């Protein structure tokens, strides 16, 4: 008689996964990137060089660098963070992680307990919302407009919480190329946010995963760089600028937090070869690669917005983002993007429904489209298909490709 | 005024880490491996080949393989597990993980809750003992002799638990090259263990991380391969056979458990480049590499036992292991290896004290020495130094290098 693992597993776990059956034909979900922009020859050259020079050190956990991760990559990050993010730090302030998701998990493990509340942007990264729900942490949502999180609303919320005798465990923000809206928090609002955090003695959790993907290259300094009160913990990643399947992210934090995060990181180190490759490649090539990548991503965004305008007309509302890999789209009243996502997936079109990416009351009218991975033909055909499915299911859009829909 | 993260972190967390200040000169801790055995040219060749052929797929989370990990590596594992472990499985039964430690964490998250009890070998992997303590799970220890876990004692324990109305959440075993004792559970005892697990309806968690490191190449089939009741979950790794800094492990399990583990694995995939490299390298080179590695490890073990015999004489008791990278040593009554480890570390000699690696009542007389990483000179000098420190602190050994100690 066989053992029944389904009866043996804990109750309350997320539903078990189904076996994977391949990518959908028109894939607008997740944070996949542009394969054609991946400079594979330079990456292979860098990998070969560093492996032949230092590969023997792979015989030791954490190489010769200790548990914070490959020192040359941390040293590269010191220069990159200074140049791009206005952050002045040293290699000892950085902990390399297995993707920025591990950073999020470590920070949550250190700072959150069930029943806590945290402040978050109203539309948000689905992976953070799902984690906070599983941790039984209350999310207090602040609206986002074209200048980022509303600091007026943030001030009101902090005051109201103080009146209730409550203090948020942290304030989480994606200030630069916000996920999913793509907005950039202005410099003025950054200062207001930090002033409020200081006034109410709340730590700030800054997620800068998309910050390098700004078409103009211009962006305010990171909150971590502006802060003078050691209250910011900052995370970033190479997933969006080099390749998501390389799982390398990082945490920058004062040692009073970083030392605790390090003791919670009981994984015997993050993947070392990927760290070695990134250090070797980025020192020489990151800046030129990023410029090219941003040109290619901008072109894909243009393709997507053209396709949406053509197929959805005025039924789709969006603000063109100044960077990133996502478009956040609002459809007419009556559309339920969770149902749309289910139906569309069966016909090969995958999208992220707003209910998983937002705490807004009208979240189910929204959807998130990643434009970085599909090529132009796939974007055009996929959006036409999506508009047709949406019309069939919800009666909108009424026209597409300048023709009335029957 | 600065923010005080030390006040903000949760209570009850492991103590914060201190900054790393380099490896000790005589390093016998952890599971570091033999750098000279690492065939870095063939590894670099394999890496270069797979990167130039398939590197563009790194632009997509989980490549083209889905969340269970790089398909060619899972396919290689199917053939390796059949050949080395007597396991008949398919690629869909395998989940690639970020080291086998992630496998342990996922399995624990699925199967354990505070207050549960589990059955473990009395001497054990420190990383498992510390995890179970943090999870507030009671460990019920079964003695290990030269044939592995005592199945007589296991039967008595299961019966006694049944009389108390208790059922272990799992039975954890390292049957092949046990950590730290190096013993191999005999084929007969394996069958007894499985029969008992079936009789008492307990799932079995088999950790085969060291199993390839058997000098003779001869070993019984894995429990997973012998089991006919779908009650075994099996983990393994490439850390001990290729390189520990490549964080690639795997879980083999029936889908009724694997699908649940997969939904708990919310890390957006494990490092893909390291999976690609291992698949490309191992298909061609694993068998010949393993033969050479085992010859080199055996030579280092001989160096270590010679050094211990010379420096500790009859003060050190051990059983020569048939494989692996560790020697488990027992010192005379009165020695406290936790204190010895503290004192020795200050003088550049690092070892794992028995109290972290065993639930035995005399655990503090034991110590674990990893012999794979230090070279012969380091082993000889380090053991001489250790014996001298031990004599100074505890009065034993009385002689060393055939001279009486003063």
SS elements, strand count of chain A: 16
What radius of gyration of chain A results from the CA coordinates?
22 Å
The proportion of residues in beta strands of chain A is 5-15%
Structural class of the helices, strands and pairings of chain A? Answer: alpha/beta
Gap from first CA to last CA of chain A: 58 Å
Count of the domains of chain A: 2
Count of discrete alpha- or pi-helical segments spanning 4 or more residues of chain A:
12
CATH class bucket of the largest domain in chain A: Alpha Beta
Layout of strands and helices, then pairs:
The structure is a homodimer of 406-residue chains.
Chain A: H1 5-8, E1 26-27, H2 40-54, H3 71-85, E2 94-97, H4 99-111, E3 117-121, H5 126-134, E4 138-142, E5 144-145, E6 148-149, H6 151-163, E7 171-173, H7 187-199, E8 204-207, H8 223-226, E9 232-237, E10 249-252, H9 255-264, H10 272-312, E11 326-330, H11 337-346, E12 349-350, E13 352-353, E14 366-370, H12 376-394, E15 399-400, E16 403-404
Parallel strand pairs in A: 1-12, 3-4, 7-8, 8-9
Antiparallel strand pairs in A: 2-10, 5-6, 9-10, 11-14, 13-14, 15-16
Structural overview:
Two copies of one chain form a homodimer. By secondary structure, chain A is of the alpha/beta class. Chain A has two domains: 135 residues, Aspartate Aminotransferase, domain 1 (Alpha-Beta Complex), CATH 3.90.1150.10; 246 residues, Type I PLP-dependent aspartate aminotransferase-like (Major domain) (Aspartate Aminotransferase, domain 2), CATH 3.40.640. The first copy, chain A, contains twelve helices and 16 strands. In chain A, the strands form six sheets. A five-stranded mixed sheet of chain A has the order 2-10-9-8-7, sandwiched between helices. A three-stranded antiparallel sheet of chain A has the order 11-14-13, covered by helices on one side. Chain A starts with a helix and ends with a strand. The relative contact order of chain A is 0.16. The interface between A and B is large, with 97 and 97 residues.
């Amino acid at each position: 008689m066989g053992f029944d693992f389904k009866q043996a597993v804990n109750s309350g776990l997320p539903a078990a996964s189904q076996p994977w059956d391949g990518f959908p034909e028109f894939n607008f979900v997740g944070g996949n990137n542009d394969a054609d922009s991946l400079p594979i020859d330079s990456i292979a050259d860098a990998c070969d060089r560093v492996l032949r020079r230092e590969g023997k050190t792979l015989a030791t956990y954490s190489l010769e660098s200790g548990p914070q991760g490959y020192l040359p990559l941390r040293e590269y990050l010191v220069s990159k963070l200074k140049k791009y993010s206005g952050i002045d730090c040293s290699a000892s302030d950085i902990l390399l992680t297995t993707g920025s998701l591990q950073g999020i998990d470590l920070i949550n493990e250190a700072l959150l307990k069930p029943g806590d509340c945290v402040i978050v942007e109203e539309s948000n990264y689905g992976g953070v919302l799902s984690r906070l729900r599983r941790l039984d942490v209350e999310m207090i949502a602040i609206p986002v407009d074209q200048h980022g999180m509303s600091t007026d609303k943030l001030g009101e919320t902090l005051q109201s919480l103080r009146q209730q005798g409550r203090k948020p465990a942290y304030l989480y923000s994606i200030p630069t190329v916000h996920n999913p809206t793509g907005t950039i928090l202005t410099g003025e609002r950054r200062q207001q946010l930090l002033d409020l955090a200081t006034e109410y003695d709340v730590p700030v959790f800054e997620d800068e995963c998309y910050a390098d993907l700004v078409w103009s290259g211009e962006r305010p300094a990171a909150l971590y760089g502006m802060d003078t009160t050691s209250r910011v913990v900052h995370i970033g990643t190479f997933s969006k600028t080099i390749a998501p399947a390389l799982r390398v992210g990082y945490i920058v934090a004062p040692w009073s937090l970083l030392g605790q995060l390090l003791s919670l990181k009981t994984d015997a180190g993050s993947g070392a070869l990927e760290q070695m490759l990134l250090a070797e490649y980025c020192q020489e090539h990151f800046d030129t690669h990023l410029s090219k990548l941003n040109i290619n991503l901008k072109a894909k965004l243009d393709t997507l917005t053209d396709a949406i305008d053509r197929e959805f007309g005025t039924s789709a509302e969006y603000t063109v983002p100044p960077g990133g890999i996502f478009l956040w789209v609002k459809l007419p009243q009556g559309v339920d993007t969770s149902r749309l996502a289910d139906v569309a997936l069966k016909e090969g079109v995958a999208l992220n429904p707003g209910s998983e990416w937002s705490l807004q009351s009208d979240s189910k009218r929204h959807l998130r489209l990643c434009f970085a991975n599909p090529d132009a033909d796939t974007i055009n055909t996929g959006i036409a298909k999506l508009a047709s499915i949406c019309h069939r299911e919800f009666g909108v859009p009424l026209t597409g490709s300048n023709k009335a829909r029957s």
